[in-house]
Write a structure and sequence with these properties.
Blueprint lengths: L1 E4 L3 E5 L4 E5 L8 H4 L5 H5 L6 H4 L9 E5 L46 H27 L5 E9 L14 E4 L8 H12 L5 E3 L7 H6 L6 E9 L22 H23 L3
Parallel strand pairs: 3-4, 3-5, 5-8, 6-7
Antiparallel strand pairs: 1-2, 2-4, 6-8
Helix pairs in contact: 5-7
């Protein structure tokens, strides 16, 4: 496996027909942006904590792993770059978020980014991330008839502003079946359902912009999103988290059952992509 890295963008290249995207594990915020924020802790609160550690076996399967170290508060590389909502009529966050998942303001009064700054952030971070994703998909398609793009995410189990009640532990998103072949969905569902952990498909999370944009089954690119409930691998707060308790540490013993399922999930993705049918 080769590694291509710049200060904030890391690509671990594999040869299996699987690309794992980690768009929200970053916590880096340029100083000139952090100075305008209400709280550095609030700005990092909604990171997909420890997901890169949770999937650190992916390279051993031959997957290509792409990760940004930049915080989603700077720019969310899984949002529509036009600014259009992915979930019309439902609460969500913007391309450059101005509130946390819990509705707390991220910026001091008058300090939120304007359109010109959003465009600069897009050019600096969003566009290079997706250029890297595109390049790796194109590279792998040269040697594989099918490639799976797997979007790896996590979120607290309870976020009342975004959804009612606790999330299942595995939340699959396929843009209501449009971003991948039904056989891939079924094989991932089977891997999840073989465990004692809960699962839903196309529930509150149907896949972000990346899943919807790249998922072109007729072109040999099948995209699926996995949103994990954090309680599968760390202590998950039952109330709005506080700085003294969040993020909770990664717990290897707690994570072991979920990691075993995720290993089966990624293996199922590779098997699907290699199936000549």
């Amino acid at each position: 496996m080769s590694v291509v890295a710049k200060s904030w963008l890391i690509v671990h290249r594999g040869e299996a027909p699987l690309v794992v995207s980690l768009p929200h594990t970053g916590t880096e915020i340029p100083p000139e942006i952090e100075a305008r924020l209400v709280s550095p802790w609030l700005a990092r609160k909604d990171a997909d904590w420890w997901v890169d550690k949770l999937y650190d076996f992916a390279g051993d399967l031959g997957a290509t792993v792409i990760r940004t170290a930049i915080s989603r508060t700077v720019i969310d590389v899984n949002r529509d770059p036009s600014g259009a909502s992915l979930y019309p009529g439902q609460t969500t966050t913007e391309l450059c978020p101005t509130t946390t998942f819990d509705g707390e303001p991220l910026y001091r009064d008058g300090q939120a980014p304007d359109d010109a700054e959003i465009a600069r952030r897009r050019a600096a971070f969003f566009d290079p991330y997706h250029a890297a994703l595109t390049a790796e998909i194109v590279r792998l398609r040269q040697s594989h008839d099918r490639v799976v793009l797997y979007e790896a995410h996590s979120i607290r189990s309870l976020v009342p502003r975004l959804f009612d009640g606790p999330l299942p532990q595995f939340n699959l998103g396929t843009n209501s079946g449009g971003s991948c072949d039904a056989a891939l969905t079924a094989s991932v569902e089977a891997a999840c359902d073989a465990s004692s952990l809960s699962r839903v498909t196309n529930g509150r999370f149907k896949g972000g912009w990346t899943t919807r944009h790249y998922g072109q089954p007729s072109e040999g690119v099948h995209a699926i999103q996995m949103e994990l409930a954090c309680r599968g691998y760390m202590d998950d707060p039952v109330k709005t988290p506080t700085p003294d308790a969040w993020p909770a540490p990664y717990r290897p013993d707690q994570a072991a059952p979920m990691r075993a399922v995720l290993n089966d999930v990624l293996s199922a993705c590779i098997a699907f992509a290699r199936d000549p049918a």
